[in-house]
């Protein structure tokens, strides 16, 4: 498809211009800026959608199959628990909900869990699966950052509850296949305030309430609902913000398979790390990248090789050895990792 109008972020900076071809990377960039819809030109050539790529080296393992089975089981429990909080005005402890998150997070190392999440089949209930995924990413990030066990649990619960306000948004707006009106877009953005109200009314931990309210805020003041700057944003909400975007960019979509983690890292770097807490985002991206040292990859020119060095100045552009050739992606314009093998 071809973009039918200019798209600006909340700071009134142009993200994508009218006439831009909506490639996978452009669509992911729009997700990065929380753009929920876009107008496209009517008369465009029809093409057959690419079949989402599946990494058989992940999905064929016993570890992944057990993870998938446990994920499906916990998904139903999470759905019921979240609906009870919203619909039945359930209060009291939510500690039991952490057990499922911890069970899934313990399925392997941080990298293994992230890889398994990237290769999960597409689910219809995106609000619930996204909540689980963000909770898992927060759990992994918190451990990488050296949080205590109590803090890891709290970070996980902040991730699990961050989008609960969307359950108060009419489903016909959430699942609308066409373009949203300005009024509908404003209603969806209001899920942050709705989430805060739901959780605070039930006496749930303040960091969890704040994460529901602030996970779309950005440290440079370009977020919503209040355009808060870094010092005013709850530090758990800063963690959730990164996990929220990372899952949105790496989750399997109808129009593409799971993105290369280096594509995601590159988008974070290109669009500006200043939008996020520096310690959190740098640690997270470096740990993700370091996890792929010696991984076999395919470049977008078809060559295959293995990652031999992570460039600290540009984490998304590692050095790859292709046979006898050493390819520094920082110095090769237009060349990137297209696929993890």
Describe the protein in words.
Residues 44-52 have low confidence and may be disordered. With 341 residues, the protein is an alpha+beta fold. It folds into 3 domains: 1-47, no CATH class; 55-259, Hypothetical protein af1432 (Orthogonal Bundle), CATH 1.10.3210; 296-340. The strands form 2 sheets. Strands 6-5-4-3-7 form a 5-stranded antiparallel sheet, with no helix packed on it. The protein has 14 helices and 7 strands. The chain has helices at residues 24-32, 56-59, 62-87, 97-105, 110-118, 126-144, 149-161, 171-174, 182-189, 191-201, 206-214, 235-250, 261-271, 278-290, and strands at residues 7-8, 14-16, 296-299, 304-309, 319-322, 325-328, 337-340. Helix 1 (24-32) packs across helix 13 and helix 7 packs across helix 12.
Structure summary:
The protein is α+β, with helices and mostly antiparallel strands. Helices cover 47% and strands 8% of the residues.
Shape: globular
CATH H-level homologous superfamily name of the largest domain: Hypothetical protein af1432
- Determine the strand fraction and express it as a percent band: 5-15%
Percent range of helical residues: 40-55%
Question: Could you list some keywords that capture this structure?
Answer:
single chain; about 350 residues; alpha+beta; Hypothetical protein af1432; 5-stranded antiparallel beta sheet; 14 helices; about 45% helix; globular
Question: Strands, helices and their partners?
Answer:
Layout (H helix, E strand, L loop, with lengths): L6 E2 L5 E3 L7 H9 L23 H4 L2 H26 L9 H9 L4 H9 L7 H19 L4 H13 L9 H4 L7 H8 L1 H11 L4 H9 L20 H16 L10 H11 L6 H13 L5 E4 L4 E6 L9 E4 L2 E4 L8 E4 L1
Antiparallel strand pairs: 1-2, 3-4, 3-7, 4-5, 5-6
Helix pairs in contact: 1-12, 1-13, 3-4, 4-6, 5-6, 6-7, 6-12, 7-11, 7-12, 10-11, 11-12
